[in-house]
Structure formats: structure tokens, C-alpha cells
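Practice problem 4.
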């Protein structure tokens, strides 16, 4: 059953993260940005929100998935940044070698 926007999860949250189903609207990218904006990583995954949900939404499962997606995206971004730095260093090294042999 979809969220009925009753706010019971917000009242039951021990951490008061603000990361509730009503907070995440729009595209998946916006949802992930919203998760970070609403301090999803402050959630201790106690399950109080899911327990009081009249729609029986398994909120903790969604939060865990969102956290893992964010971590995976950050890991991929770090790997891409590292690869870009290595590539730029290689180009600079080749340019230095080219100017050294031209002398």
C-alpha cells in the first residue's frame, strides 16, 4: 500500500532525521540527493518508523538500500576521480618526456 502521508513515521523516529517517504519525490537522482539532504546517515535503523506505519511500508529496508546506493555512487565517483588524476598525470609525464627529447 502506498504512503498515506500520515506522518506517524516522523513522530516515531528516534533520530528525527527527516528522511521519510514524503520527502522523496521526483527522479531517482533527486531522491538520492534528498536522502543526503535529509541526513539519512543519521538513521540508526531502529525500525520504529516501520513499526508505526499504517501502510506497512518497510521503511528501514528502503533506507538501507538508499544508504548502500549512496555509498556505491560515492565509491564510483572516487574511482573515476582517481582514474582522471592518473590520466592527467600520464599526459603531463608524456609531455615532459616529449619536451626533454626535443632539446
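Answer key:
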Amino acid at each position: 500500500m502506498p504512503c498515506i502521508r500520515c506522518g506517524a513515521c516522523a513522530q516515531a523516529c528516534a533520530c528525527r532525521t527527516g528522511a521519510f517517504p514524503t520527502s522523496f519525490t521526483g527522479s531517482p537522482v533527486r531522491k538520492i540527493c534528498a536522502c543526503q539532504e535529509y541526513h539519512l546517515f543519521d538513521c540508526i535503523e531502529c525500525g520504529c518508523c516501520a513499526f508505526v506505519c499504517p501502510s506497512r511500508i518497510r521503511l528501514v529496508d528502503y533506507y538501507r538500500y538508499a544508504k548502500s546506493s549512496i555509498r556505491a555512487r560515492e565509491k564510483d565517483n572516487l574511482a573515476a576521480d582517481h582514474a582522471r588524476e592518473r590520466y592527467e598525470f600520464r599526459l603531463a609525464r608524456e609531455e615532459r618526456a616529449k619536451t626533454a627529447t626535443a632539446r
